[in-house]
Amino acid sequence: MPGKNTGDSGLSAVANTYNRFPVTLVKGKGCTVWDDAGREYVDFAAGIAVCSLGHCHPEVTRAVADQVGRLVHVSNLYWTLPQQRVAGLLTENSFGDRVFFCNSGAEAVEAAIKLARRYGHDTRGPECHEVICLEGSFHGRTLAAVAATGQPVYQKGFEPMPDGFVHCPFNDIQALEAAAGRETAAILLEPIQGEGGVRLVDDDFLRAARNICDRLGALLIFDEVQVGIGRAGTLFAYEQTPVIPDVICLAKALGNGFPIGAMMAGDEVMAHLPPGSHASTFGGNPVACAAAEVVINTMISDGFLEGVVKTGSYLRERLGYLASEYPDRILEVRGKGLIQALVFREEEPNLAGRLLEAGFLVIFSHGKVLRMVPPLIVTEAEIDALAAALRDVLKGQSAASQA
Prior knowledge:
Blueprint: E1 25-29, E2 32-35, E3 40-43, H1 46-49, H2 58-68, H3 81-92, E4 98-102, H4 105-124, E5 130-134, H5 143-148, E6 165-168, H6 173-179, E7 184-189, E8 192-193, E9 199-200, H7 203-216, E10 219-223, E11 247-250, E12 261-265, H8 267-270, H9 286-299, H10 304-325, E13 330-336, E14 339-344, H11 351-357, E15 360-361, E16 363-365, E17 369-372, H12 380-402
Parallel strand pairs: 3-15, 5-6, 5-7, 7-10, 10-11
Antiparallel strand pairs: 1-2, 2-3, 4-12, 8-9, 11-12, 13-14, 14-17, 16-17
Helix pairs in contact: 2-9, 3-9, 10-12
């Protein structure tokens, strides 16, 4: 309504769907962000594994500014050069032949689910529609993606869920074999579960999933929304596994903060989504693709991904020292590349807030898993600073509990 007072800050005008930390961030550069009071924080969350080249990367900024001044949007009724270049980079550096562009990870997963059902319908009949997923998985917030997600907490209150999704215990080959059958259109999994607690799928399980799909004529879909585009130390996480998927879902780091998602497959598979079968108005927007082009070219440049592996090993080493100091509180360290986690034995409800007070942004999963997904340009000095702050917090909490 005209003249309606929403308050000076406008906080009350934003939907209350997030438990936000009490800071308003206004600026970022590299691995550092600043709030509206001028306080700085080292960012080990990177917008939830998004800003992998850091905040306001100069080449990304330049490419986006140039593109905004040239062409912002025309829809997918027409070709654009940035989209063509990004599609070429993705396919030239992967198993894929074709890319469908969208705006987010959830949309990429939705596109993959639709492709799997259409492929199953076309090749094996209308009864072939089920997608096997894993317990503990997270595939997005849209209704089908939530149905695919193997965590009931995200489904509560949104029932009934769309049917056609089966969930198997994590890394349980026997259960996977039992679930697969003539109705199986695809197996959908994250090679590393992010929101599920930074859990790595076993190579043997991946081989079994590949063999089942080959035997049935089903599709193996990798959700690499969080762990693809350099996060695990290779451009795609599947490159570090013994299998090659049929379909891959990407987003997050692809645009370094600009909304873009992608679903990629080979020619034969993607042919089952002909013109008119699926679409996205803003998908592959020229501005987002201008950012993505810089991201991919940077990551495939000499030495970049090798640096991610080295820095990831250093982060894991420092976390390992902490785990050895506090074996009564820390269960293990797990991860790959620059997605690493400290797994606590009990919930640590105040730890993220204490680290925020110490000047660090981190992510907690399920109250027990401290997930670190910093920009891939993070330095050893910044890792040392986080480790020192984490040690101080743990030491202070231990002293307080003993008092």
